[in-house]
Amino acid sequence: MDFASSLSNLVDGFGTALTPANLLFAAVGVVGGTAIGVLPGIGPAMAVALLLPVTYGLEPTGAFIMFAGIYYGGMFGGSTTSILLNTPGESASVVAAIEGYPMAKRGRAPQALAASAIGNFVGGLIGTIALVLLAPIVASLAVGIGAPDYFAVMVLAFVAVTSVLGRSRIRGFASLLVGLTIGLIGLDQMTGQARLTFGSLHLTDGVDVVVVAVGLFAVGEALWVAAHLRNKPERPLPAGRPWLGAADLRRTWKPWLRGPAIGFPFGAIPAGGAEIPTFLSYITEKRLSKRKDEFGNGAIEGVAGPESTASASAAGTMTTMLTLGLPTTAVTAVMLAAFQQYGIQPGPLLFEHEADLVWALVASLFVGLVLLLVINLPMAPLWAKLLHIPRPYLYAGILFFASVGAYAVGGQVLDLLLLFAIGVIGFTMRRFGLPVLPAVIGVILGPAAELQMRRALQISNGDLTGLVNSPMAAVVYVIVALILLWPVLRGVVRSRRRAKTPTG
Asked: How far is CA 276 from CA 122, 165, 180, 254, 306, in A?
């Protein structure tokens, strides 16, 4: 697909996204995503998971336009919490707290919020333009990918996500194992054999991904917070109306433009989302800044650059999810589950089979970014007031909506029991420091990885070399090996350097 046809399809997508009904869906998504994302401990992933059941009555295009708004709104909301409360709503907002909260303590919360909002807009805009240019090319190249290649890429996604997130690789792989086990529940896709159903006919269809996502994110988080409510929460700092002066603009426009160059590539590869690129952006801005003494005390560049990076990274993850069907962040994992609920499988053929839906979704990303800026900048003081909601009421409401959403999936009491059982698993994972994302990735990609592996082995008559009989698969496994062996190699290099260093 050439640039001209991509541009033509995008124009058609805007024709769909700019209808009054779809504009309303986008606005509701932005406002709802921001409102939920602002609340402490609730990031875009939980916002999308909680609102996923709400969209069941909508046709797919309207639902995904709303999701686009929720995605970007949730990211802005998470940054607001970081700046005003020093409590990141998600991992991508951690860096915003490093400089944003000190700015707020110095009375510069309006400038920090403005740098964050405009950074999100600029980074998302550039990242989405890159998505328009690159996604059709990636999809056309991916059409020729066979079962061994797909399995290798999924293994890379598993290893990268589990190795990057959390303090311990063992905990990351333990979380992945939890997700893969839940993904096994139901009928074997190739033989029809029941697995881990314990004689329940309801479980033969497997555990709905929505129940898993809401259970691990919403219920697990609510139980975790309830167990720690004795800790007195910190009161948020006053927000004020976001604005930037001429001096602030001179300091922020370059970080805004540098962010996408770091964020989009990291988002597009299976490397765990925005955590690494936002820290890289922060380090880059600190090295390039002429005011290094301000870093740690409220440097506005330390908010502008990482926020632009995080938004561009989100566009990169959308590229991978739409073209390869690989979710690399919690939000795209939940969105992939939403696609599957509508019987749509993201991947190389999505741009051919569901062209109208895809380009309307891409166009809605642009619309959502504009609405984010227009609606949320003036409403920042209002969002800050949501931070005063008492935690018991907040998480009781989350449990209520999570229960209603899970029951709406299948109308079965067993779904509620599964929801809270998985919620307890989510609570236990937080208790022992296991990251949640690998588990969600395991549930969603596990069955697909198993299917691709068995297809590859069928083609090779059970010969294990059938998993590495293509150049792409071989290259991917080399990358996997490097990721796994990197800590060992780094330790060997350091020990040799110490051995060569003369002791005084």
From this structure: 19, 9, 25, 20, 10
